[in-house]
Design brief:
With 115 residues, this protein is mostly beta strands. 0% of the residues lie in helices and 53% in strands. The protein is globular.
Length: 115
């Protein structure tokens, strides 16, 4: 059972930045991929970004050129750097790991973009 713990959420003004972290309870080196999702009340969970084992990344169109997903294998941590934040980026952000033992979710961290 892999445990994922997100952190780094908070309240930020439009145009600001936040960096989210997702710490895994075991080595992420062998994970197939790790993703970030987000969700607002009453809406479906939306996929945001992925980083695969080979380091390749992809993003939903609405965050391209603003968000960057990265990982530090030594710290078993994946990050989501979010710049030029907009009100529509508000939501609970979840980390998702695709591993050889199954797929796992974190508990989420709230991001609120508001003036």
């Amino acid at each position: 059972q892999v445990q994922l713990v997100e952190s780094g959420g908070g309240l930020v003004q439009p145009g600001g930045s936040l960096k989210l972290s997702c710490a895994a309870s075991e080595s992420i080196f062998s994970f197939y991929a790790m993703d970030w999702y987000r969700q607002n009340p009453g809406r479906e969970r939306e996929w945001v970004a992925i980083i695969r084992a080979d380091g390749t990344t992809r993003y939903v169109e609405t965050v391209k050129d603003r968000f960057t997903i990265s990982r530090d294998n030594a710290k078993n941590t994946v990050y989501l750097q979010m710049n030029s934040l907009k009100s529509e980026d508000t939501g609970v952000y979840y980390c998702y790991a695709r591993t050889t033992s199954g797929d796992y979710w974190g508990q989420g961290t709230q991001v609120t973009v508001s003036s």
